[in-house]
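Design job #97: recover the sequence.
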């Protein structure tokens, strides 16, 4: 994922704290379990979700008027 693009539009990135780390670990375990315990399949599913979200983000950013963003995007 292009983290710079998220930072460029002014949304601060959240850094996981200890509580969030435990929650992320539980979600990771759940994702692997949903794929029958196959970690490789879980990673493939997550990569597909990331690709979908990046494409959705790119579509949304393409609809933002460059001047409205006050130059915070990578160009028109």
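Job complete. Output follows.
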């Amino acid at each position: 994922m292009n983290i710079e693009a998220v930072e460029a539009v002014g949304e601060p990135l959240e850094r996981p704290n200890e509580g969030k780390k435990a929650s992320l670990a539980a979600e990771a375990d759940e994702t692997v379990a949903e794929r029958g315990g196959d970690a490789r399949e879980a990673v493939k599913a997550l990569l597909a979700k990331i690709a979908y979200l990046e494409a959705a983000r790119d579509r949304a950013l393409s609809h933002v008027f460059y001047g409205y963003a006050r130059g915070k995007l990578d160009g028109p």
